[in-house]
Amino acid sequence: MNMPQQVLLRDAMRQLNMTRDAFAERIGSRRRALDAWLLPDESNEFRAMPEVARRFVSEILASSGRPIEYTQSAHDGALRRSLHVDGAQHLLSVAQFDREAIDELFRLADVMQPIARRRKVSRVLEGAVLANLFFEASTRTRVSFGAAFCRLGGSVCDTTGFTFSSMAKGESIRDTSRVISGYADAIVVRHPEQGSVAEFARATNVPVINGGDGPGEHPSQALLDLYTIQREFSRLGKLVDGAHVAMVGDLKYGRTVHSLIKLLALYRGLKFTLVAPPQLAMPAEIVALVSRNGHVVETATAPARALAGADVVYATRIQKERFAHDEVLEGFGQAFAIDRALVDASCRKDVVLMHPLPRDGRPGSHDLSTDLDNDPRLAIFRQTDNGIPVRMAIFATLLGVDKLVSRSMRDAAWTPPSHIGPDDSSFHGLD
Ligand code: ASP
Ligand code: CP
Description:
It is a single chain. By secondary structure, the protein is of the alpha/beta class. Among the domains are: 1-68, no CATH class; 220-381, Rossmann fold. The chain has helices at 5-16, 20-26, 31-38, 51-63, 78-82, 99-116, 140-151, 173-181, 196-202, 219-236, 255-264, 284-292, 303-306, 340-346, 380-398, 405-408; strands at 84-85, 88-89, 120-121, 129-134, 155-160, 186-191, 208-213, 244-248, 271-275, 296-300, 312-315, 352-354, 410-411. Helix 9 links the parallel strand 6 (186-191) and strand 7 (208-213). Helix 1 (5-16) packs antiparallel against helix 6 (99-116), helix 7 (140-151) packs across helix 15 (380-398) and helix 8 crosses helix 9 (196-202). The longest helix is centred in the last third of the chain and has 19 residues, at 380-398. The radius of gyration is 21 Å and the shape is globular. The model is unreliable at 68-74 (pLDDT under 50). Aspartic acid is lined by residues 212, 218, 255-256, 317, 319, 356, 358. Aspartic acid (ASP) binds at residues 212, 218, 255-256, 317, 319, 356, 358.
């Protein structure tokens, strides 16, 4: 079965590490034609790619040492290998990934897009049960993992907070994990202690996904963040290699930035500007790891001048729940808020503004401001939407149905929305 043209083209650009302009030139087409080939099928501007162009893309890939028949089964393995931990399949840390595995995951996420946009349905996980175990607050991770599993035909069981689980009665992680493994086929865990999700994984042979372990990691968030950066960059004609990424806020306890910076460090020649008050700086061992990989790391204690030239500004919330005492917040004030005035004064016109969310909207919180909400540079809701295809791709791989997804797709019977938020260009048809 032929790959959808959008999947093939995005994959080819990733494999060849080419911007859209460079790729359009390489295949002898106009950038505008390529843009139209990349749009979702349901978009008015979508155009089918001529067969001759498809063949030419395959030839280019073949001559660059890539497989000639660029089908889903042509070069798998790296992703499944990276998810292999102690004889089982788990997603615990971004340290499990290399670029090949990331490319494979993102190709599969692209395959999932018609399901995420609610044009297609699939039942490949019919009969499978996901256990969502969240011992810390969550909206996105819990619901989007659940929705991703359901959209592939599975069902979800939940427990939230310690109070409503028998951990409140002193049950260990090990016992809990073993018990749940008898009920469910995959487990997503969020827990306040660093390393706790790996402990869950050690007690079971069922795939375990780290949905956030204290200040440790949040690997699925970093994967969807990187997927978002690549898609935004594709539209903007940029590559991850050589990019300038600014991370702002609580870099000490923010697990999303810990995972994201390690993942970005797999690319080449990046510049990172880490903007945080000294008491919330990025842990030294992570900075050392990124620097060892040949990237430039600069630090700043205020955003104003530090954001100049950044291709991505990744803002974060102060992780107040990790602090023992409120005093540590002293001095972390208005200076760290990211708002329209700061962005207009300090950032590039084509900057991509990101945040893992939630943003703290309470008075005096100094988080990402809502006055940027209608600004097309704000990618936060494209970011949350991308959680669905990326998490579907993670499940499909962990449960071994990745090859079946394309063939399993049928048209959705209901009328899907053409866009979700009032400002979304036709459900991301913009790219
Ligand atoms: N939701 C993200 C996390 O759980 C970021 C945050 O809460 O600030 O890590
Ligand atoms: N980004 C994120 O993890 O959001 P939640 O805490 O709402 O799951």
